[in-house]
Structure formats: C-alpha cells, structure tokens
Amino acid sequence: MTALNIGLIGCGFMGRAHTNAYKRVPDFFPELGRRPVLQAVCARSEADVRRFAGQWGYASFETDWHKLVARRDIDAVDVCVPNNLHREIALAVAQAGKMVLCEKPLAMNAAQGAEMAEAVEKAGVANMVWFNYRRVPAVTLAKHIIDDGRLGRIYHYRSSFLQDWTISADVPQGGHATWRLDVAAAGSGVTGDLLAHCIDTAIWLNGDLRDVSAMTETFVTERVHAETGAKQPVGIDDACAFMCHFANGSLGLFESTRYARGHKAAYTLEINGAEASIRWDLHDLHRLEYFDHRDRAEVRGWRSVHVTDNGGEHPYMDKWWAPDLQNGYEHSFVHQVADFLAALEEGHACSPTFRDALKTQVACDAILASAERRRWVEIG
Amino acid sequence: MTALNIGLIGCGFMGRAHTNAYKRVPDFFPELGRRPVLQAVCARSEADVRRFAGQWGYASFETDWHKLVARRDIDAVDVCVPNNLHREIALAVAQAGKMVLCEKPLAMNAAQGAEMAEAVEKAGVANMVWFNYRRVPAVTLAKHIIDDGRLGRIYHYRSSFLQDWTISADVPQGGHATWRLDVAAAGSGVTGDLLAHCIDTAIWLNGDLRDVSAMTETFVTERVHAETGAKQPVGIDDACAFMCHFANGSLGLFESTRYARGHKAAYTLEINGAEASIRWDLHDLHRLEYFDHRDRAEVRGWRSVHVTDNGGEHPYMDKWWAPDLQNGYEHSFVHQVADFLAALEEGHACSPTFRDALKTQVACDAILASAERRRWVEIG
Amino acid sequence: MTALNIGLIGCGFMGRAHTNAYKRVPDFFPELGRRPVLQAVCARSEADVRRFAGQWGYASFETDWHKLVARRDIDAVDVCVPNNLHREIALAVAQAGKMVLCEKPLAMNAAQGAEMAEAVEKAGVANMVWFNYRRVPAVTLAKHIIDDGRLGRIYHYRSSFLQDWTISADVPQGGHATWRLDVAAAGSGVTGDLLAHCIDTAIWLNGDLRDVSAMTETFVTERVHAETGAKQPVGIDDACAFMCHFANGSLGLFESTRYARGHKAAYTLEINGAEASIRWDLHDLHRLEYFDHRDRAEVRGWRSVHVTDNGGEHPYMDKWWAPDLQNGYEHSFVHQVADFLAALEEGHACSPTFRDALKTQVACDAILASAERRRWVEIG
Amino acid sequence: MTALNIGLIGCGFMGRAHTNAYKRVPDFFPELGRRPVLQAVCARSEADVRRFAGQWGYASFETDWHKLVARRDIDAVDVCVPNNLHREIALAVAQAGKMVLCEKPLAMNAAQGAEMAEAVEKAGVANMVWFNYRRVPAVTLAKHIIDDGRLGRIYHYRSSFLQDWTISADVPQGGHATWRLDVAAAGSGVTGDLLAHCIDTAIWLNGDLRDVSAMTETFVTERVHAETGAKQPVGIDDACAFMCHFANGSLGLFESTRYARGHKAAYTLEINGAEASIRWDLHDLHRLEYFDHRDRAEVRGWRSVHVTDNGGEHPYMDKWWAPDLQNGYEHSFVHQVADFLAALEEGHACSPTFRDALKTQVACDAILASAERRRWVEIG
Fold first, then answer.
1. Which residue in B367, C296, D135, D357 has the fewest CB atoms around it within 10 Å?
2. What's the confidence (pLDDT) of residue B206?
3. Residue B265 has what pLDDT?
4. Taking the domain D133-373, which CATH number applies?
5. Chains with 3 or more CB pairs under 8 A to chain B
6. Is the ipTM of this complex over 0.95?
7. For the domain A135-373, what is the CATH code?
8. CATH class for the domain made up of B2-132
C-alpha cells in the first residue's frame, strides 16, 4: 500500500474530523491502494499545534503554512482554516503541484471560487471540497434511488439547516471558537456555513438552480469581539431563507438559521417526485424516509429505512459492523476520504471538486445579492 | 328505515360512548336498514339519569333496571354497569327475549360467562360484547392483512395495556368513579379491565391460547373506600403479566398495569410473521406500522400507514371525511354499532358474541389462577 | 335551551362537516344556552338536497338559496358553497339581518372580503369564518402557551400544507368534486384553499404579516372540465411558496402544493422563540411537540405532548372521553360551533370574524400579486 | 503515556470492534495515562490472523492462544472467541497474572462463571466483561438519572432484544459465522447471546433479580452444520421470554428472539417509576425517551432527548464532535476501553467485572432451568 502524505492546515473542529477520517480509512477500506499518512499539521500557535500533533499522531508540525505547502514530503494539503484563508492557501498548494482538499464553503465568494477552480485545473492537481453530507449512507442511498429514476418527475425540493447556538447576545464574534460570526473571516453567516451544505446536496440530487429569491436577517446586531473585547456591528446573516427554481422545473425552498430554539444541527431535506418521495434528517442520519405511491394501497405509507445494510444494499455500510447497528456523523468523512483515495487510484476526479463546489458558491452569492436587493436573481 | 329501540342501563363513561355511537351511526352509515332509537336509559339515581336522558335525548328513563328490561318498547338492552351486575341483567334480558349488548369484560368469571352465553343462545337473541378496539380501522386492517396470509407463519404476538392513574395511594376504591379498583364490583383489576382487551384482539387476530403462565402484583395494598371512607384491603391486581402459547404455535407475551408512569391508555400490539410484521399503538390509533420482508431490500423498512383511506382500501374510513383526516377513539363504537345493525339485517351474529367473549373470560380466569399458584395453567 | 335555527347552503364535504358539528355540540357542551336546530338545507339539485336532508335530519330543504335566506324560521345561514358564491350570499344574509357563518376562504379576493366584512358589521349580525384548525386542541394549546409568553421573543414561523391529489393530469377541473381546480369557482388554487389555513393560524398565533415574496407554479397546464369534457387551460396555482416578515420582527416561510407525493393533508407549523419552540402536524393532530430551553439540560428534549387532557389542562378535551383517548378532525368543527354559541350568549364576536378573515384574504392577494410580479409586496 | 500491551484472541466481529476501540481511545481520551498497544493477535488460521494483523496494525500474531498468553510482552488478554473457550483461556490468563477482558456472556453456565470469577480475584488481575451497552451515552445517562433518584419507586422494568436473521431454515449452524446457533459452542441461543445484554443492563440499572419464570422455543429444529454439511438437531433456544421479580419489588418482563421479522438488533428497555419513566431503543441509540410527571401538566409529555451533549451534561459526548452530531454503535466499546484504562490508573475495578457478569450468568441458568421445568425458579 502506497502512502499519501497529508499536510493539515488548521487544527480546530474540522481538523479533528478530517484527521480521524485519515486514520480510520485503512482499517475499514483495506482494499484501497493508498493509505493516508499524517505527515504534518500546521497552526499559528506552536503550543496548540504541538499538542494536536502529539494527540493525533502527526509526524511533525509547522506554524507557517507556507512552509508546510513547500515541504517535499507532503502529497496533499488539507485546508481547515477560516474561509478568508482558503483562496490564498489553495492557490499556493496548486502552484506547488500538490493535491488540495478544502473545507467548505470553497471561498468567500464566487470570484475567489472561480479563481481557485481554475488554479487547480490548470495545475492538474486532485482537488475536493469537504461537503461531507453527501457521504452519509442515507443521503448516498437517496442519490441512488433518484438516479434509478424511482421518484419520477420531480416537483419539489425543500431543505433546511436549523441551529440555536447564537440566540444569546452574549456569544462573542471572531476568534478561534466563534470566527463563524465574524464576517471578515467567514464571508457570510448561515448562508455560507449551513445553506452551502443544503445547496451542495440539492445540486447533487436535483441538478442546477436557475434563480433565487432570498431574505436574510441579523437578529443580534452588535457583539463583542472574542479577542479584542470591543463591541462591534455584526456583519453576518443570522438567518436566511430562499425560494428557487431548479433547471428541471421543480421548486425549491430553503432555510437556515441559528435562532431556531431546540435545534442544534437540524439539517433536513425532502424531495417529492410524481411516483415517490424521500426525506432525511441529520438528527437520525442513519434513517431514510421513503414513500412509494406504487405500493399496494392498503399498506402504503412512509417507510423508515434503517440505512444499516439491508442485505448489502446500503452504501458503505458493508464496511462497518452488522445490520441495524448505526454509524454516526464522523463516518461521512471516512467515506469521503475512501472515495477520494479510490478516485486517485482510478484516475478520475472525486466529487465535489472545486468546480462542483463553485456552483454552490455562485448560488450563495446570488442568494445574498437577492436578499440585499429584495428581488429575484438569475443564476448562470 | 326501521327503528331499533335501545334501552341503556348505566350512564357512566361507557354509557356516554355507546349513546354517542347510536346517535351517529345513521349519519354515517345511511345505507343500514335499522336505526337505533334512544328509547330509555336507566340508573339508580333519578337525578343522574334524568340529567343524562335530557342531555343525550333519551325519550324516557327508569331507575330500576328490571322495569327497563320488562318494557315492551325496548328491542335491545345495553348493559353498561359494573361487572358484578352483568350476569343478572343479561340473563334477565335473554329471558325477556331481547337483544343484549354487554360491556366488557363479559362477566366476573368464566362460570358466569358460560351461563350468560348459554342463556342468550338458548333464548336465540342477538348478543354482542363491547370489545370496541376490533373496530379501530387500523386494527381491522391488521385483521385483513393477517387473513390474507400476508404475514406468513406467525412466531410472536406481544401486547400490553399500560396506565398510570392509580399510582397515588390516595386514589380511593369503590363508588361511581373508582369501582374498577373494588374487587367486589370488578372481579379483578387490570386483568379483566385491560388485558381482556388485549386478549380479545389477540384471539381474533391470532387464534386461541393454549396455556398461560402469569404473575400479578398489588402495589398499593390498602385504599379508602370512596363511599364509606373506610380504609380497606385492596383485592384487585394492580399489574399482571403473562406468557402464553397460542394454538398456532406462536408465543405470546402480555402485560398490563396501572403503574406505568407516562402512559394513560397505552394499548399496543405487535405480531411477527415469517414474511411480515405489524404493530399498533392506541396513542396514534389511526396508524398501522407494517414491515414486509418482500419489499426491495434497498428501501425496505417499517411503514407508517396512515389508516385514513388510501384509495378506499381502509376499513370504515370511506364513511367519514377525506384522506389523511384522522378519526378518534369514539369511532370504534360507531363502527361496532354499524356492524351490529348490518349483521341483524343479514341475519348472522355480530362478533364478538357472548360465546366469543367467553374465551377471553376463560383466559382471564386461567391467568389469575396461574398467578396465584405460580405455575402454568392449560386452557381448554 | 333556546334553538338556533340553521340554514345550510351547500351539501358537499363541508356541509357534512358543519352539520355533524351542529348535531354533536349539545351532547358534549350541554351547558350552552342555545342549541343548533337543522331547520333547512339548500342545494341546486333537488335529488341531492332531499337525500342529504333525509340522511342528516334537516327539517326541510330548498333549491334556491334566496328562498332559504328569506325564510323567517332561519336564524343563521351557513355558506358552504364554492368561493365565487360567498360574497353574493353573505351580503344577502347580512341584509336579511341574519347571522352568517362562511366557509373559508372568505372570498375570491380582498375587495370582496372587505365588502363582506363591512356588510356584516353594518348589519350588526354575528359572523364567523370556518378556519377550523384554530380549534384543534393542540393548536389552541399552542395559542395558550404563546399568549402566556412562554416562547419568548419569536424569531421564526414556518408552515406548510402539502397534498398530492392532483398529480395525475387526468384529474378534471370544475364540477362538484373538483371545483377547487377551477379558477372561476375557486379564485385561486392552493393559495386560497390551503395557505389560507396556514395564514389564518399564523396571524392568530404570531400577529400580522408585513410583506411577502412569493412564487407559484402550475405544473399541469391543461385539464378536462368535469362537466363539459372540454380541455381547458388551468388557471389556478398548483403550488405556492412565500417568505414574509411579521410585524413582530420574526421571519415566516410558507409552502403549499398538491404535488407532494406521500402527503394528503400535511398541514404543519413550527414556531421558534428565544426560550421555547412548538411544532404541530395535522397527521397526528392530537399531539403538540414542545421544546423548552429552560428544562434541566441533562433531560432537555422535544416533548411529544398527547393533547388529550393532562389533568384538565388541555383545551376542549375535558368535554370528551378520557385521558389519552384521541379525537379527530371533525372535533375542530364541534369546538368552533360551541365557541360560536358561547360567544352569542356572552354577547361578543367569535373569532375569526369576517374582519379577522379579511386579513388572510389580503395576504393571499399580496401573495398572488408578488408571485405574478416576481417582487416583494407590502401588506397594509 | 504508558503502553498497555494488548493480546487479542479471536478475530471475528468482536475482535474488530474491540481493536477499533483500542485504536481510537487515545485520540479521544488523551488525558488517560495508558495507551493500548496492539501487540499480538491470535487465531487458529494463519491466513486469517496474518491478514487481520496486517489490516489493523497488530505488531505480531500467534496461532496458538497458549503462546499468546505466555508471552511476556502482553499485559492484557482480550478473549473474543466462542463461549465454550472462555473458561479455559480466562483461567490460563489469570494464572499467568495478566489482565483479562472477556467477551460476553462470561461463560457457558454459572458454574464456569463462578470458577472464572474466583480465578481472577485470586490472581488479583484486572478483569472486565464486554457488556458494551452500558456505555452507550443514552444508557449511561439513564443510569445517572436513576441514581439521582429521579424516577422514584420503581414499579416496572421491561426489555427485549429482537432479531430476525434465523427465520430461514437454510441458515446453517456451527462454523465461523454461525457458531451462535451451535449449542456446543454457544451454550444457549438467544438467552446467552441477547438476553444476557438485557439482564446485565437491568441489574445495573434496577438491581438484582429474585426469581424468574421463563419459556423458550426452538422454531427450527434441524439445521445443516456449516462445516460438516450434516443435518443435526438444533440445541439452542430460538426465542426466550421471562417474567421476574426484582429485589426492589418491581416486576420485570423480558423477551428475546431471532424470529421477529423487521428487527435486526432491536434492543429496547423501559423503566417506570412513580415519578418518571425512561425508554431506550438501540435502533436510535443516541436518543433517550424521558417522561417526568412533575412537569407542568399543560406541556407534560415524553421527551426525546438527543443524547449528544446538552451543554456538556451527556456522558462521554464532550469527547467527540459537536452538539446534535450523533455517534454510533462502535463508540460504546471505545468508552468501555477508556473506562477500563481510567480504572487502572485509579486503582479500582472496572464494571462489569467477572463477578458482576456472574450475576447475569446465574440469571441465564435460572431462566433456562425455569423454561425446561415450566416453573418459577428462585435466584440466589
């Protein structure tokens, strides 16, 4: 088995999630020809990065990402830093001729995203964006069902991502833990952070968006900055909802917020076709709800499919435990790494590439523009 | 449309439920040839019975049930009094050559029940026992599915009826509202009151019981009598569980209690066959859970069938509103009256007859005997 | 008890639902001083109306609604005809000085609605619109919880009403059974039929709407007319979604369609406050989901409240059966009649009045205008 | 960090689950002073064990367990072989003065179990049995709630473990994959395999059992042996149910089967106390249902607690991802290893020890004896 030397930049929540995936993939996907090796991790704080490297088993660490990118023993760079740094690092990695795996959203905006997509394509390096929810087995199963044409003509797609962690006005913005509230670091609020997930899945399952009409709201307009302690205006969107048309003629309805009390990570989606419908909810990510109008009428109803194998029919699940034994959040990252490695071997791109993720970025820009101007905005 | 003159004895909770059913059946089952007429109601307290007759529209009332039974303008007598009075009244009604509809359980014990069944059969009068849950559309649908052979060989039947209303030691026994806690009036506790429902449905769906092993418990051993105020030993079973074998070779497991905090009327059942399984819960009585192993594996799962029509395939529901609009508890009684009237027209018995209900009584006797002796008891 | 003589115009689905409510209310609300009497029913087809009167027990019938309105033995006229007839009849009833109960939506548009509201107010007659879902006990309970201030500041309101009965292009438009697909009779499609319910409840629970941005779609653009057999363009909206701001600063998101496979009457709502949230789903109308952030963290979670009494704390439920025994769809109408009668006695209006319902009509007009013009529309 | 050198015997399903736990614990519990090291794995087939060691990263392998036990570089032996080998290996490990971690059930019967418990105690070696479900966070939370006295006096405990994988008579017995159907290897059927889990949790949560009355059934009485191809009588119990009394006066009801169509790993439990009740279901292992009678009546209901942190109040979950992001089956093993390591450091035993697990073994013996003799059997 060949090594794929990983250099990770950023050791926050996502740094942990990706690292865990790199470590686990050989145990559960032993047939793969390449094995990720934790070669180096980089963060600005030496204390932090030293501790992280020790805990997770990275062979070395850096405090300057330029050095990590320049190292000859690194094959692939994983970008797990705030959004405002994605572009610069990704361009440097591409220029260095290395593979790049970038945390979502791809960039601060579509212009940056386009530049990044062009850069990796020009450099001819493998690239991928961490829209991990595609690889939740129930979501992958939804993709299979749709691609098999079992839903018939699609009429509706609806999706939401609800949280409640910023309701308190005492939550600060900026800094390590709360950079997602700082528009300078994040680019936007729930749109880039949460709706981007909904949109990526939606495009994957239901095709391109044609136009959008959005509204955003900032409920708490001033917050203390976590590092400076200064009270500053809040620049992000606390909530965002939008309507859209898909290219296939179906209607879309999306919503995201951090002010939905009772929800911490309520990512849900539903798709209605002429023949069948599908629903999914991250809170019980191992289940897929499925309704098929062709069932015998007497016992027709929504099915709760426990996506834990069903005789080997469920994506990825044969790699794990036994039927009915559920997996969790982290496994989506393991699956994404496995697919990336398999794609490397087979010599094709692993979706979502930068180019794929750019579509979501374009949609996010359109959404924010629509909300600002209070009018419909065409896409593409 | 011909009148069926009803004489109701007892105006408690069940008196209300049955009266409501008599009044509603012509509106929703207009095709029936006979229409119940509220001719007379009887209770010992004149004040109570007068008020009840006025509220519900009974044409007259009595305070002595012998008089009601003797009246020539009564076709059918509905016995809604505590269990210790069932036998005497039912025998008198049969002797008077009138139809008799008896609240469950049929009697205080199997000996009484046998006497009653023989009496109505000898008199040749129509008779029925109010095991109303058979006519919840989801339960009737379960019967259809089973009779169609869709479950395959049956392995397991489990059922429970859980309540929590007697946890407080301050609840009295005896009297109007709490006669169910008085063994002299009720004959037994949860066995006759709640398990009788579970057993009636079980026999209907899965056939006869062969043997039982039971345990009972009385958690609160003394209670004040509601009328006398005297503290007295409690004679009923507060909780009862039993295992059994069915004649078809399947295993049964049953439980009932009034000490299950969080449950008020949690009647549930599940039946597992080689090919398919069924579950039902009174808390959402308009739903039937159904699992069919023959479904395509990828999307196989428990279905939640909203038993509210599905293109006319759901029992009784075409009589009511529109698809997906749910009915409630009371409708089971309306359906039972409608079936009784239809059976009268068609000249056959309406199940469960006294003879049918006797089986449940025999099972209850065996359960109580088993619990007392701590050993298995054969049935029949 | 005084009689309230009812004259019903229209004997379709809603005619049945209202009639059932009139008949049942005295049984379950015996304390009310007035009792509805089924004095007359009116429909154009003599065969139909004669049959309906016979089945349900109306004392007489008419085939010309002008005659019914003119009859001196009628106190209150119930308007259960297609939307395009509401205005004319309601104005005539008001002019005749009679009470008027009008099926929802109030009118074809806001102009008609305003005229009707003014007419009943000028005439000083009691008036009400049948937005029955306010009186589902779980929804009424939601209102109590909100009015008690338990949710805190409201951030989000979302609601949808999903059906699937018009997916087939073979469903005709117009005529008795499918007038809701005929724009000439219905005024609009899902907006007036389904979203009107969502909006009425929303205004009741969360206050006025400030502006809307909507999209509509007509998926099947031609249908055969049920009576003429001619293929005609479809004029209604098959689906409609809209975003809005409420006057209290919260964001709203609404959707309705008849193309959501797997849903027959999926009316849902959710409201998120700073302290607590509420969810409700018509499919299990006897449950209210409730989340309270003030609960002890260890066991904090969404509660499924079985709105069937809880010690007398649940609206209306003490009138019916016993704890945990669920009611159904029809009971919402019974409750509305009971409240109407109680309001009569107490000498105040019974909400929603024509004036109340006009707000929903105004919102519907704004929604349709917004969808047509593809821009935000302010509301009065 | 000190190494704890692990020697694993057996590389089947449980060998994988334990190995995964050893590997992951340092990543997520970095504060622990000892780190498991995969020193050696043992299995009879050299091909199998070589492959397993390579995939999972064991430093070496053996094909004779005596050699592994004798190796000086092994600190702890993990026994993951069929039940009939537990005793001999465990005794040898104890005699070698090494720690022993034994897969459940502890032994073939209570006599063996007692011998094993005495051996490890006499040797003074750390010991533990892999009843992993205690460390599912929702189950651990249940333990906390109970120990805090929040349920009040306990009345009922019910638990079941339902599967459906042996319904087909074509499933063989014996051999690698199906030794659980071979009474010579397994000792019993569902009793030792599945009910043992239910009983271990029950004793942990609710205390000792006092007596049992059980029934067992073997639905398929002959099966082909996987290795010999010979048709042989089936010696195991396919299904087992039992009633019991707990020492605290509460009633227990348990069931297990491999013939419940629609269930693959349906381990459920419910406990009813005077004040509150708890339910859990392995199918959604990250949720705990909780009902508290002390809640305000209006909004009292069963809560679905998503056991994924709630502000740090949920056991183990602060070690993993973020609120609302669910874990899966395998994490229970990681938690058990972490607790074992922590107990080593703190110098106390890690429950369930062999002595703890012996109680479950005694109960299983009593259950099988009760079923055979068809009578109640006292425990201890």
1. C296
2. 98
3. 94
4. 3.30.360.10
5. A, C, D
6. yes
7. 3.30.360.10
8. alpha beta
